[in-house]
Design a protein that fits this description.
Elements: E1 9-13, E2 21-25, H1 34-44, E3 53-57, H2 65-70, E4 74-78, H3 82-94, E5 102-105, H4 109-112, E6 121-124, H5 133-143, E7 147-152, H6 155-167, E8 170-178, E9 188-195
Parallel strand pairs: 3-4, 3-6, 4-5, 6-7
Antiparallel strand pairs: 1-2, 7-9, 8-9
Length: 199
């Protein structure tokens, strides 16, 4: 990466990166503290086995896709904003992440899922309105990943969606609030879920 930040990119670092920094498009970085970003990657990283197939929904420009791919996961990123996807592909090249580790689908999540089959794990980072019933059914009933990580900034829609996900045969294994906006009442919640045995 040459040690020089590119215009339009910012550096992130986290436990999941094992000390390495990645340049990601600044469009995809919320006004968060470095510590909060590290907390999210620390939660995601230990739960994903290297080489696993991971589905990243509402992926933006790859804030989670790129660190996961750098760790060795095979990531399919679905994001409807085509400009964000172009930024993510540019960031992947900038960080010298092998092309085969990321598959980018520039479509709404509902439509993009039609192009994806089975996956070992899924990361969901939806907007405040949460996930549609179609998305939840397509992911948790039709594909049945062993592991899911749901990142939410809205406790109301988080509770609604978790209720639906558990009806598909999943259990919550951890809930981690993260202070993403210091000195405000807003937090992000990172929830890990696993598929129940026998489902």
């Amino acid at each position: 990466m040459g040690g020089v930040a590119r215009v339009g990119f910012v550096r992130i670092v986290g436990g999941a990166l094992r000390g390495r920094r990645l340049d990601v498009p600044d469009r995809d970085v919320r006004p968060t503290s470095e510590r909060a970003r590290e907390a999210i990657f620390d939660i995601l990283g230990p739960r994903l086995v290297s080489g696993a197939r991971v589905l990243d929904l509402y992926a933006g420009a790859g804030l989670f896709t790129l660190p996961l791919a750098w760790r060795g996961q095979q990531v399919t990123a679905i994001e409807e904003n085509r400009e964000a996807v172009r930024d993510g592909i540019a960031s992947q090249a900038l960080n010298r992440i092998p092309k085969e580790r990321c598959r980018w689908i520039a479509r709404p999540v509902e439509a993009g899922l039609a192009r994806v089959r089975a996956t070992g794990a899924v990361v969901l980072d939806p907007p405040r309105e949460g996930c549609s019933d179609q998305v939840l059914r397509s992911v948790f009933s039709d594909r049945g990943p062993v592991l899911a990580v749901y990142i939410s900034c809205n406790p109301g829609t988080l509770g609604r969606d978790l209720s639906a996900i558990t009806r598909h045969g999943y259990s919550v294994t951890s809930v981690q609030p993260v202070d993403m906006f210091p000195h405000t009442p807003h937090i992000e919640t990172v929830v890990a879920l696993t598929r129940d045995s026998g489902t």
